[in-house]
Every structure is written in C-alpha cells, then in structure tokens.
Design a protein that fits this description.
nucleotide-binding; alpha+beta; 10 helices; eight-stranded mixed sheet; Alpha-Beta Plaits; globular; Ribosomal Protein S5, domain 2; four-stranded antiparallel sheet; 308 residues; 4-(cytidine 5'-diphospho)-2-C-methyl-D-erythritol kinase activity
Length: 308
C-alpha cells in the first residue's frame, strides 16, 4: 500500500483523580477517559525521496492548529513511528501528514491522538501485522494518554493512566467544548497542583473511581453524569489561567448539566441534555470571556481506525 489514513478522536476526562507525587515524577491516577467526535487524521505514505540523504521520517501538519505543532523529531507521531519500527526490528521510511482539528495543548490529548494514529497507520503501511496488544504496549511507552487514543470508547485508566479497562455506557452524550487562546503545559499544571496541595497541607490519598459517575455512564443518565464530573487538576488550571472561571460560569448559566476543565486545560467541557441544547450552549459561549470558539461533539466514539 502506498498510503494509509487513520482517524483518531479527542478525549475528555470525566473524572481525573490525582494521587500524590511518586518518586519517578509521575502521579497515580484514576482517569475516566471518554472519546469524543473531534478528530485528527494522520496519513502515512511511502516517501517520495528514498535517497540515502533523505530523513527516514518526515512530518507535515495541516489545519487550524498547524503552526503550534512541531514538524520535527519532537512530534509525538514521529516518536511513535520510530518506536514501532524499533519494536519490529526493521528499518523504516514514511512521510507523515497530520490534519489537525483537536486543539493543541488543550487538555484533549491531541498529540497523543496523533501518536496513536501514526502507530496504526505505519503498522499497516509497513505490513508489520502487530496485534493491538503490542501497539498498546508501544503506545504506553510513548505517552500516558496514547493507549486510550487507540482504545477509544469510555474507559478507566490507572497507573499513569495507561492501564485501561473498558467501561459500560448506555447511549451517547452531547458535549460542548470551549476553546481558549493559547495552551497550558501539562507538566506545569501538575506542578501547580502539587504546589497548591503543599500550600494547603492537603494529602490527596489514593485515587479511586467515582461510583456515582460509573453508575451514570452505565445508565446513560446525563443529568447524573453532569453532577459527577470531577477534575483534581481544575484548581491548578484555574490558578494558572483565572479567565477559565468565567468560561465555566458562562456555560453553567446557559444550563449545562455539568462543566469542568478538560484534563490539564485550558479547554472547558460542558455536558448538554441534547443536540439542540448543545448548539444553544455553543452559541451562547461564543461571547464568553476567554472563549475563542465553541464546538459541539458526541461521545463515546471509537479509537484510532483506518479510514483510507
């Protein structure tokens, strides 16, 4: 095959419970992931230049967020493709094209999604035939959120978030995402979380999954789910970006069933009662302070999948 295109979804964290800082610099998490219908696409193609001087992997980025994504070896998709080739023990060449719709540094795992898509696309392009469980292992080494972008649907992640168990859900849920100008660094948000806890003398204890949230997912109860949404990183994100409080308040005033900062932010997520309600919230948020744009989506949706 000369080219493979993979579509991969964004995520929202329905619950993000953050334990104390570990010796390895990570935190133990209970992370309830939910894949939503905002997608990037990654195409892996046979390279046009196969000379010895040509780099084995190249990457180009298109779309609204293209200028904010590294087009070099720092790109997670490039790192994922290289890790895949290393696991397979073979030489590799590919030209990667990333079409961005997922916000960059927005708390929706856009870079991780691209890495997952690159794993699937290059596995097909290179004819490796590695099974999903092998791709999941490679994904976990690339980044904590990469396995879920492969997995999709709704799942609880433990450890750093990379150990996944699928969660039962009924029906689909309607979402609005308020996009902010600029991003937030995930390490900086975790660092601020640790600082705030130390300042307050708070011991977070061992993170556990929320039973009300899991029950709401099983029953497809959007009202109960809205009440159960939680994110331990939200105070840190608000500390670093106070304007997010205005965005969250605006969504609540528009009748959102629940609201929270998505992951490390700065994207804010709002749960709506219906497709029509989501459109109304999105329209109302467009003039909210700190909100650059508002988009609607549904979830859960599948993880990374070949579309062409």
């Amino acid at each position: 095959m000369s080219a493979i295109t993979v579509r991969v979804p964004a995520k929202v964290n329905l619950q993000l419970a953050v334990g104390p800082l570990r010796e390895d610099g990570y935190h133990d998490l209970v992370n309830v992931f939910h894949a939503v219908s905002i997608f990037d696409e990654v195409t892996a193609a046979e390279p046009g230049d196969v000379s010895a001087a040509a780099p084995p992997l190249t990457v180009r980025i298109e779309g609204e967020w293209a200028g904010e994504v590294p087009a070099n070896d720092d790109n997670l998709a490039v790192r994922a493709a290289r890790a895949l080739a290393g696991r397979a023990g073979r030489s590799y060449r590919a030209d990667l094209l990333i079409r961005k719709s997922i916000p960059v540094a927005g708390g929706m795992a856009g870079g991780s999604a691209d890495a997952a898509a690159a794993l699937v696309a290059c596995n097909e392009l290179w004819g490796l035939g590695l099974p999903p469980e092998d791709l999941m292992e490679i994904a976990a080494d690339v980044g904590s959120d990469v396995p879920f972008a492969l997995f999709g649907g709704t799942a609880v992640g433990t450890g750093r978030g990379e150990r996944l168990s699928r969660l039962e859900t009924a029906g689909s849920f309607h979402w609005v995402f308020a996009l902010a100008d600029g991003g937030l660094s995930t390490p900086r948000v975790y660092g601020e979380c640790d600082r705030l806890r130390e300042e307050a003398g708070t011991d977070p204890g061992r993170p556990v999954a929320s039973e009300p949230l899991l029950a709401a997912l099983r029953e497809g109860d959007a009202v109960a789910l809205g009440r159960a949404l939680t994110n331990d990183l939200q105070p840190a994100a608000l500390s670093l970006r106070p304007s997010l409080a205005h965005t969250l308040h605006a969504g609540d005033e528009l009748g959102a069933l629940g609201s929270l900062v998505s992951g490390s932010g700065p994207t804010c997520a709002f749960l709506a009662a219906s497709e029509t309600h989501a459109a109304e919230i999105a329209a109302g948020l467009k003039n909210a302070e700190g909100c650059r744009a508002a988009v609607t989506a549904t979830g859960p949706v599948p993880g990374a999948e070949v579309v062409g």
